[in-house]
Amino acid sequence: MIEISNVTKSYNGKTNAVDNINLTIKDGEIFGFLGHNGAGKTTTIKMITGILNQDEGTILLNGIDIKKEPLKAKKQFGFVPDSPDMFLKLKGIEYLNFMANIYEVPKEIRKERIETLSNRFNIADALGDKIQTYSHGMRQKIVIIGVLIHDPSIWILDEPLSGLDPKSSFILKEMMREHANAGNTVFFSTHVLEVAEKLCDRIAIIKKGKILFCGSLDELKNKIKENDSLEKIFLEMTENE
Ligand SMILES: Nc1ncnc2c1ncn2[C@@H]1O[C@H](COP(=O)(O)OP(=O)(O)OP(=O)(O)O)[C@@H](O)[C@H]1O
């Protein structure tokens, strides 16, 4: 579970990039975080993951305060950032072992997870190659596998489907659903409205740092008395505010 209470962040001390937001992402749900460029999605995700400190408010991950107990809180989640261009000099397998070492995943368990995940994402044959030789989609996949290697209960993904081929995108969506159905939390940001429409149990729409809406798609549709696509609703909601 992720609990965000009265969280505010300003970069310049004048305007708030995130403005007093409240969100609870429950166990067992896939939660989509939607907003236009500059709306405040990445800033929010950076605060949830402890990369940035909020100015005000609290963020709890499975009940643990990310600001007060960062190490303990960081063990609760796996974070897939929007740019997968990291550790390029390492071979895929070296990166995965590095991640497994950080999270102290026992040897037998990591071997099994690496095999299962790399086969599922069809990247097993490339694990001996350096990440710098990988395509964008392959880099995305290796980062996802690295994040999942310690089997975190909370998944946080920033624009996770961009760059993935349709098959890998399908597999990741399937894994997100399985993870949520097993009673875990999946939180991801997206611009791809159709993805949110198909995948999410609930969504939040953020604009200029404020939450415009939080709830299920049915609630959204009822609320604005529209039965059209989420894209239309989304555009209307963001334009009318
Ligand atoms: N490091 C920074 N320094 C100053 N301002 C920033 C910084 N990062 C973001 N901002 C500003 O904070 C606001 C929210 O940006 P943020 O990156 O959180 O939005 P976003 O919804 O993730 O957008 P995108 O979809 O483009 O990634 C924007 O006005 C942005 O210009």
Outline the structure in words.
By secondary structure, this protein is an alpha/beta fold. It has two domains: 165 residues, P-loop containing nucleotide triphosphate hydrolases (Rossmann fold, 3-Layer(aba) Sandwich), CATH 3.40.50.300; 71 residues, no CATH class. Helices cover 38% and strands 23% of the residues. It contains nine helices and ten strands. Strand 4 and strand 5 form a beta hairpin. Helix 3 runs parallel beside helix 5. The two termini are 29 Å apart. Bound molecules: adenosine-5'-triphosphate (ATP). Keywords: ATP-binding, Nucleotide-binding, Transport.
What low-confidence regions span 5 or more consecutive residues with pLDDT below 50? none
Percent of residues in helices = 25-40%
The first-level CATH class of the largest domain is given as Alpha Beta
Radius of gyration: 18 Å
> Strand arrangement, largest sheet?
6-7-8-3-9-10
Name of the CATH homologous superfamily of the largest domain = P-loop containing nucleotide triphosphate hydrolases
- Whole-number tally of structural domains: 2
Residue fraction in strands: 15-25%
The outline comes out as globular
What is the CA–CA distance across the termini?
Answer: 29 Å
- Identify the CATH architecture of the largest domain: 3-Layer(aba) Sandwich
> What is the residue-averaged pLDDT?
89
Helix/strand class: alpha/beta
Q: Kindly identify the CATH topology of the largest domain.
A: Rossmann fold
Secondary-structure element string: EEEHEEHEHHHEHEHEEHH
Compute the number of strand runs.
10
Tally of alpha and pi helices: 9
